[in-house]
Amino acid sequence: MRWAAFLWEGASRASGGRRPGVSNLLLVVAAASSGGLVAYADSGSDAAVEKPQLPPRKKVVVLGTGWGGTTFLRNLDSRLYDVQVISPRNYFAFTPLLPSVTSGTVEPRSIVEPIRRILEKKGGEIKFWEAECFKIDPQSKKIHCRSNVGTNLEGNGEFSVDYDYLVVAVGARTNTFNTPGVVENCHFLKEVEDAQKIRRSVMDCFERASLPFLNEEERKKNLHFVVVGGGPTGVEFAASLHDFVTEDLSKLYPSVQHLVKISLIEAADHILTMFDKRITNFAEDKFGRDGIDVKTGYKVVKVSKDDITMQNPATGDISVPYGMAVWSTGIGTRPFVVEFMKQIGQANRRVLATDEWLRVRECDGVYAIGDCATINQRKVMEDISEIFRVADKDKSGTLTVKEIQDILDDIYVRYPQVQLYLKSKQMNGIADLVRSAKGDAEKESMELNIEEFKKALALVDSQVKFLPATAQVASQQGQYLARCFNKMKDAEENPEGPIRIRGEGRHRFRPFRYRHLGQFAPLGGEQTAAQLPGDWISIGHSTQWLWYSVYATKQISWRTRMLVVSDWTRRFIFGRDSSCI
């Protein structure tokens, strides 16, 4: 009885004076000749304390692991959302170095980072599925996917995923312009696998040309490498291939090295048309000195197994034999994005149209970044009447310069073409623009009616420009969109954007603005051309070292950074690898 009283009293004290239940007692009895041992432990309160239920997180689905999608994921606060990533490739690839992979300067695995490793460093519960989206259903907010690495019970590997927000960052495919034979006979240079195929094909061409039973013409045909497209990718690949041949393969294949020919075909009048003319002229002169045959003004109309047919207004159709062809002539839209565009009334567009906040037009909760989309900048003349109404605070029917200046900052943010136009015309401000339309010398006293206001701004929309399809643009868009998602809740209460011209209040965020940081054009022979902000042009060997430092710094991890630098070092010491692996 004493043991029982002690047990009951101890249990009562441990449970705060409450009557202990069965669940509160843990009895351990060890039988012995002298008696028993009894122990007690309190397992807690009679009823489990209920934790407060957190509101369900919004589901964010990201399609693609390229520059846009990966940058978005790295900057997104994954604690705020239920994040799911879907992509047919389970890695991020540093695509600017793909031409270096084709020549063996850099190894393929040196420029890729597993996406799961990136997500692991982020923390949180981010899910990844290796699959390809083949349909977007914006009405039911659902995407349909197909996996190539596994099947479901029906054996087709298909599944669907719901979303609250969808970020489309699937990039683009190479645009063939429906030229016959391109898909069947040409290599592309968009993915790591493409670069590996090109590298093997180059070596196969040299091995075939070295066979003893071929005649001179057959050897020349096998060693004729054709690059279609004079943009940055085509030019860099041609330069990289020329270095590979002259610095490495010429030593390994001395009997056929004099038969090698590299041709660069461009439909425009010059190569690198997006660069300054000084860079364009230098590149064409250097390629001429290096023996690269640059054919400008030629349009490829057909590609067969053995010949490429091109057109020129002066010469007509010309067919040339070739051993390997690389097609690099721009980008095209992926098939499922084309179907999605038809659903939302954008069937006549080349790529997805978004507004300045990267939201897909006519589609709720869908964003698009990178090469698969373009920003459809709002025109000033489309909103000119509403701008006049907002600025005319005293409802007098006329605007003074001061009234315009009061909303000028919001106009600059909402319509950046206004500021670009003033800069292009070397105007100091809106007063100069008004004077040019009004013809008066007075400033503050000038007044404009609606027609005069339209006349003053009639030409500003000529400065609307489309962004280039580059990694730099996609990366900045991913970073911007992640920032918007991170601040979405706060921005509802404290909007930071410009005044709504159509509607009340302010926009939640400032529109996306691309900041051009410069561009490179490696030209071979350890020479690179760079066009940096401020119209600063640099060409030569020193710029090549700037290119090395920038591309090493921009690597996504220290692992890839060390691998790329070691590959460059290995190439300097031992040369490029020529094995057909």
Question: What topology does this entry show?
Answer:
Blueprint: H1 2-14, E1 58-63, H2 67-75, E2 81-87, E3 91-93, H3 98-102, E4 112-114, H4 115-122, E5 127-130, E6 132-137, E7 142-146, E8 158-162, E9 165-168, E10 173-174, H5 182-185, H6 192-209, H7 216-222, E11 224-228, H8 232-252, E12 261-266, H9 277-290, E13 293-296, E14 299-303, E15 307-312, E16 316-321, E17 324-327, E18 331-332, H10 335-343, E19 352-354, E20 366-368, E21 373-375, H11 384-391, E22 399-400, H12 401-406, H13 408-414, H14 416-424, H15 430-438, E23 447-448, H16 450-456, H17 471-486, H18 488-493, E24 519-524, E25 527-532, E26 536-540, H19 541-553, H20 558-574
Parallel strand pairs: 1-2, 1-9, 2-5, 9-20, 11-12, 11-17, 12-13, 19-21
Antiparallel strand pairs: 3-4, 6-7, 7-8, 10-18, 14-15, 15-16, 22-23, 24-25, 25-26
Helix pairs in contact: 2-17, 6-7, 13-14, 15-16
Polypeptide structure, described:
- The chain is of the alpha/beta class and 581 residues long.
- The chain folds into three domains: 55-172 and 333-377 and 466-515, FAD/NAD(P)-binding domain, CATH 3.50.50; 187-332 and 517-574, 3-Layer(bba) Sandwich (FAD/NAD(P)-binding domain), CATH 3.50.50; 380-463, EF-hand (Recoverin, domain 1, Orthogonal Bundle), CATH 1.10.238.10.
- Helices cover 35% and strands 19% of the residues.
- A five-stranded parallel beta sheet has the order 5-2-1-9-20, with no helix packed on it. A four-stranded parallel beta sheet has the order 13-12-11-17. The protein has a three-stranded antiparallel beta sheet with strand order 6-7-8.
